[in-house]
Hints:
Residues 1-17 form the signal peptide. This protein is of the alpha+beta class. Helix content is 47%, strand content 19%.
Amino acid sequence: xxxxxxxxxxxxxxxxxxxxxxxxxxxxxxxxxxxxxxxxxxxxxxxxxxxxxxxxxxxxxxxxxxxxxxxxxxxxxxxxxxxxxxxxxxxxxxxxxxxxxxxxxxxxxxxxxxxxxxxxxxxxxxxxxxxxxxxxxxxxxxxxxxxxxxxxxxxxxxxxxxxxxxxxxxxxxxxxxxxxxxxxxxxxxxxxxxxxxxxxxxxxxxxxxxxxxxxxxxxxxxxxxxxxxxxxxxxxxxxxxxxxxxxxxxxxxxxxxxxxxxxxxxxxxxxxxxxxxxxxxxxxxxxxxxxxxxxxxxxxxxxxxxxxxxxxxxxxxxxxxxxxxxxxxxxxxxxxxxxxxxxxxxxxxxxxxxxxxxxxxxxxxxxxxxxxxxxxxxxxxxxxxxxxxxxxxxxxxxxxxxxxxxxxxxxxxxxxxxxxxxxxxxxxxxxxxxxxxxxxxxxxxxxxxxxx
Length: 452
């Protein structure tokens, strides 16, 4: 509606401007036309030797020869006047003698038409002086040429012009409104498609938005898809966590019921209850920690990495002070982690602690901005190197399995790297394990893709 009203207003203003311009041009054109007729008559007027006017045969326009045509010529002489054949019948306004070389445009002036009805004319006059060819004669005399045109000529032209102007503008307006409607419907069709797809998702008829959309709408549809997938993954993770927790608690509960049915002694029963309660507590804490480490909030604010890394490293350097291990930083100030602070702590904590366990004396933390994409926040490259013995290529896949430790002599539960993988997977990143080119030990490299 706004575009249509704007188009109609523009056409109306354009029509008004053209109408005013035509009025000005028509008025100026009438003045120039009468002046040209006057000069044409001035070139054709001739006088006899005795000073009598030699009447022009034909005027510069055939309307001067048609009675009542609305275009009249009059020559004022010292002893009378001469008029064109078109002036026979109408009563023209009184003409006066003008000085030689004087021009005068007047109007509208009153006149009476041939049928007796009143009218008006515009008049242009030019004063001239006739001199005989004999220079010794003093028989010079002035005369004035007038050309008059009915004042209704310009209004008639204006009416014809206005009828054509507003007719054509009206047709053009209808065509443009129809074209504008088609263009707007065509250009907004992708938005209607997005609304329809979203309605299908809300009704459960589709699991996500389509993949093919105009590039202007891709950030919107990608964000909606990411939100849908994140919610679906979180719901699935909650279901899995509850299922895993219920399955894990079956055994301790079965043990307790069996001990109660066996009529065990109070002391023995207390010991069994304490053991199974501690086991259930460990299971609950583990499952809750696992649930907290998976999934992340979309559109999270960027987090500066160095403060978290410094806090972790200070504590680990105290724990491993006996081997004199230190951690060096190579952190780009522009690098940011877009996610949950707890995920960043788990990620850094498990990787750096694992490096301290195996390092002889040096650990290197490298953080740089990752890949970029239009309309997306930048990715992240995070790597932890150590100068330890490294990991053989044939054992990398085994070490990354849950519950498996690289060396049974090193304290731990073997789930740290599995938690790291779960976090990286929730951010749709990848973990690469290999040999450190700089320190010679193991290198754990995390690459997070550009986010929404």
